[in-house]
UniProtKB/TrEMBL annotation:
Residues 138-224 form the DUF2293 domain. InterPro entries: DUF2293. It comes from Streptomyces ruber. It holds the Pfam family DUF2293. This is DUF2293 domain-containing protein.
Length: 227
């Protein structure tokens, strides 16, 4: 093994995933999937007093960290990457009981995170209900003739979280009159006029809006005046 391909220093105990077939210099077992270099010669894990450890592949940072914290004895497993001409970390060897304890800690954390996600989802749902109620109330204030069921439907549609609709805009969240009127007008346009049919028949959007503008204004005016 050349100096350029020597395992990285300062990582604690190192175990090497063999790239070439090697046998233990002490017990002659092999070829070895994992080996320890002692005095420049390979030894199997049993002869290196590491045979009782279990391999934990890299990938789960929290589990790896906790396994090493829990394990009295551990080693870093590396493999030589010929293309990069350097050793790459593959995982760690830890005590089996330590790995089990670390897994339990991670499961407890995951359960805590799950509960926190559930609480956050419930909080957001409650916030959404309150906001939809406020939006619907503002619709009914501005348009007292708008049926309650329709006001609720418009508010729910406009304020759907993540939709990017007017109710989720800054103006919508502030219940500005312009945002509320815009949401009601959009509902009237799609539900109470032939606007969608015009679009489907190939009429350009600006022209379709022009054709139904009177119907929208008439409905909005009737809903406003009903109070």
């Amino acid at each position: 093994m050349t100096a350029s391909s020597a395992p990285p220093p300062g990582t604690g105990l190192l175990v090497i995933q063999a790239v070439r077939k090697k046998h233990c210099a002490e017990c002659r077992s092999g070829p070895l999937p994992l080996l320890v270099l002692e005095g420049g010669v390979p030894r199997c894990l049993d002869c290196a007093d590491l045979g009782h450890l279990v391999f934990l592949p890299r990938g789960d940072t929290a589990l790896t960290r906790r396994s090493r914290e829990e394990s009295t004895l551990s080693a870093v497993v590396v493999r030589f990457d010929r293309r990069r001409s350097r050793y790459e970390r593959q995982g760690v060897l830890v005590e089996e009981a330590a790995l089990a304890r670390a897994e339990r800690r991670c499961l407890l954390d995951e359960e805590a995170r799950r509960r926190r996600r559930l609480r956050d989802a419930e909080r957001r749902a409650a916030e959404d209900v309150r906001f939809t109620d406020a939006f619907a109330a503002e619709i009914r204030r501005l348009f007292p003739g708008c049926p309650d069921e329709r006001a609720r439907a418009v508010a729910a549609h406009a304020s759907l979280r993540g939709s990017g609709r007017v109710g989720r805009s800054a103006a919508g969240r502030a219940l500005s009159e312009a945002a509320v009127v815009s949401a009601v007008a959009a509902s009237v346009r799609h539900v109470d006029t032939p606007y969608d049919q015009l679009l489907m028949s190939g009429v350009p959007r600006p022209e379709a809006r022009r054709r139904i503008a009177g119907l929208v204004d008439e409905t909005l005016g009737r809903w406003r005046a009903a109070g």
